[in-house]
Amino acid sequence: MQQAILxxxxxxxxxxxxxxxxxxxxxxxISIKKGEILAIVGESxxxxxxxxxxxxxxxxxxxxxxLSGEILLHTGEQxxxxxxxxxxxxxxxxxxxxxxxxxxxxTSLNPVFTCGFQVMEAIQLHFPLNKEESKKRPLPYLxxxxxRNLLLYFQNIPIN
Length: 160
Fold this sequence. Notes:
By secondary structure, this protein is α+β, with helices and mostly antiparallel strands.
């Protein structure tokens, strides 16, 4: 049986503020194997975003308080508990091993920069590539997803 690449075990999270305590997640369990796709569906306020943000440890703490559980990333060589990971470990995981597409594009992308520039910037953060190589790297994926405007950016605009 194939081992999961990501496991969330008994994750419980509260948000604590001056108004009181909000129980956001209660003993969430998820297991994702290589090649699987998971959709988390539910009504507003059901914990979908909190679950997703917790996988990359992106919830501000405080007000978020991780009460219990583990978020385990199995890389083949090692198992990392995201909730106990160091800042350097998280930096190497985010965007490299685990990525997230946020719901609100206006808070995810910076309108001052082109989408293509921001994709290239993310690639250069994780791989020791020059600008030319950074532009070539996403091309097969952009073609597969049929992102024409980004393809134009990566294929036709000269590198400054």
